[in-house]
Amino acid sequence: MRVGVLVSGTGTILEAILEADLPVVLVAADRPCRGLEIARRAGIATELVERSAFGGFGDRFDRERYTRELVKVLEAHRVDLVAMAGFGTIVSKELHDAYPGRILNTHPALLPAFPGWHAVADALEAGVEVTGCTVHLATLETDAGPVLAQEEVPVVPGDTVESLHERIKETERRLYPMTLRRVIEQMDAERGSDANLADRAWR
Ligand code: GRF
User: Fold this and answer.
1) Cβ contacts of residue 122 below 8 Å, gap of 6+?
2) Claim to verify: residue 154 and residue 93 sit in the same structural domain
3) Which of 44-48, 75-79, 112-116, 184-188 bottoms out in mean pLDDT, i.e. has the lowest?
4) Which single residue of 26, 57, 117, 153 could bond 4 by disulfide (Cβ 3.0 to 4.6 Å)?
5) How far is the CA of 58 from the centre of ligand 1 (A)?
6) Which pairing describes strands 24-29 and 130-137: parallel, antiparallel, or unpaired?
7) Does any domain span residue 198?
8) Are residues 115 and 67 located together in one domain of the fold?
9) Which residue, judged by its Cα, is nearest atom 5 of ligand 1?
């Protein structure tokens, strides 16, 4: 099994994935970020597919052309399974067509509660006492795919977005590698690298 990890930020979840010794063959990013440094230091191949070359972050962003380039890069590294770990670009259909049911994501909330990029702030704003994280299959609809694993994290008095997010990420760093390992083992055991994970019940 050959795993490709997509990152945009600090890459602490990527670090946990690498520490878990999962078969990561590529780390790709949509912008220069610490995640790429982590991968380089670990001797993993890296690819920077910069959004700036595809219209940047505004209305001019060409999502389809960007996604096609990303697929090309993943296929060139013969990636079988894609793990998003704090990837800040919503990809288009081309990636889902190339990796049907084989894209995982971790999200810092208990989906379906608080989807979207501001999940931690939204949970804090809503005044919930418990939030958490969700590992799920990524589908075309953002943060809406089948849930593979979920764990609760308490909100404590005085929490800020930063303190709460860090507490959630501590859980993600354990839950995501664990779930990835489970998925990889299942795929290896059952049907090999072209399995569509959406075809089976996970919970
Ligand atoms: C995680 O909370 C992930 O769920 C979210 O972005 C964060 C990534 O953190 N999508 P890091 O860059 O791995 O530290």
Assistant:
1) 109, 114, 116
2) no
3) 184-188
4) 26
5) 22
6) unpaired
7) no
8) no
9) 86
Q: Which of 96, 107, 136, 165 is catalytic?
A: 107
Question: What are the angstrom distances between the C-alpha of 40 and each of 12, 16, 62?
Answer: 14, 15, 28
Residue of the nearest CA to atom 6 in ligand 1?
86
- Annotated catalytic residue 136: no
Give the pLDDT band of residue 192 (cuts 50, 70, 90). Answer: low
Atom of ligand 1 nearest to the CA of 16: 13
pLDDT tens per residue across span 62-99? 999 999 999 999 999 999 999 999 999 999 999 999 99
Cβ 35 vs Cβ 10: under 8 Å: yes
What is the Å distance from ligand 1's center to 28 Cα?
15
CB 56 within 8 A of CB 76: no
The residue range of the domain holding 111 is 106-136+147-193
Which numbered atom of ligand 1 lies nearest the CA of 84?
10
Q: Is 203 among the domain residues?
A: no
Given a cut of 80, is residue 193 above it in pLDDT?
no
Q: Is residue 189 part of a domain?
A: yes
Q: Which of 106, 135, 148 to mutate to test the pocket of ligand 1 (most atoms within 8 A of CB)?
A: 106
Average pLDDT over residues 29-39: 97
Its pTM surpasses 0.90: yes
75 with 122, same domain: the answer is no
> Given this model, what pLDDT does residue 199 score?
72
CATH of the domain at 159: 3.40.50.170
Whether the CB of 9 sits within 6 Å of ligand 1: yes
Tell me the residue type at 127.
Answer: G
Closest residue to atom 14 of ligand 1, CA basis: 12
Distance CA 203, CA 198 (A): 12
Does residue 55 surpass a pLDDT of 60?
A: yes
